[in-house]
Amino acid sequence: MMHSRTVEIWVGLFIAGGMAALFMLAMQVSNLTVVSNDEGYAVTARFENISGLKVRSPVTMAGVRVGRVTDIGFDPQTFEAVVTMRISSDYNQLPADTSASIFTAGLLGEQYVGLDAGGDMEFLEDGSEIILTQSALILEQLIGQFLFSKASEGEAK
Amino acid sequence: MLDWLQRLGQSGLGFFERLGRAHLLFYYILSGIPSVIVRFSLLIQQIYSVGVLSLLIILVSGLFVGMVLGLQGYNTLVDFGAEESLGTVVALTLVRELGPVVTALLFAGRAGSALTAEIGLMKATEQLSGMEMMAVDPIRRVLSPRFLAGFLSMPLLAAIFSAVGVMGGYFVGVGLLGVDEGAYWSQMQSSVDLHEDIYNGVIKSFVFGVVASWIAIFEGYDATPTSEGVSRATTRTVVHTSLAVLGLDFILTALMFGDN
User: Fold this and answer.
1) How far B94 CA lies from chain A's nearest CA (Å)?
2) N or C: which end of chain B has fewer CB within 10 A?
3) What is the tens place of the pLDDT at every residue in B213-228?
4) Chain A residues with CB-CB distance to B41 below 8 A
């Protein structure tokens, strides 16, 4: 049997190592350090088509992440998608006529919301709605349009 | 024919008998836990033999599992030009699945078998009955500290396994294969969620800690007190723990990650 002091030191080291590993997982591996879900303010935007946008997708402005999508709903009256996003309170001076578009990161990457600043002197605040929106580009529709225009070009000749 | 039916019934009854005994023992172990907190040195001793002595195998296998994930993930992802997502692949696989599960399997092989053999031999050499003669409750004195030690060690071991694995993936991916370092960490951070992934992984390893130590202690306490019985109990510990961990893992995964 080992000396009890050595045992205690080893156990202490083990517990400290395990806690350090948990801490490293929490800080280094997960998104704890990035915008968390509860802070900031919520704004909504209506899109005709959101394609593959999901809850927790990033909201960016000039390529910098400023928030996350927190809820996606459907309005049965207007047949539009209602996207609620929470924007970090660090960025509380976005003009009220900011426009929102849905982009794709890379050709096959995930969908995200991109904000473009307008020129209004009023700012977006909790509960306000972004009026100017642009829907996601659907690859199939683009290809369809392209083929259609090619075909009509051929007829004209 | 009648003989066969009789044996079937006997083994069925034996199964339920063992199941009942296992649950009763679980209850006794739990009710013995308050007395462990009073005698803290017993717990420290057991965390040493269950946790600290398993550390080496956990560190080495975590490192190699992470390195293999880095290598395999890279080979798969590079076909799609998406090798920047390597960090996501390595971290999610480790934190959600491989960390808790492989740790539990290694724990069953390293610590569970040792627990069973120790308790089985204590029973075979009549140390447990000796304790009862001296009015010392063997469940409180021997079983509860071992159970609590296994329950507390498992999440720590799993966290160490995952952390070392992430570093192993980093060595192979960034060091050897040339994935961009910033992309490795930032992609990982943007897709691993503290609540959804890391907390659920920790909950999993707590559950596996309960199951692995419970099975090991029950098999040891229930062993036939002969050398053959102890050896059979040790084998059963490893087999049953592995099966229980893999089966429970499916159920827990379905509960935790099934709805998204």
Assistant:
1) 11
2) N
3) 999 999 999 888 888 9
4) 4
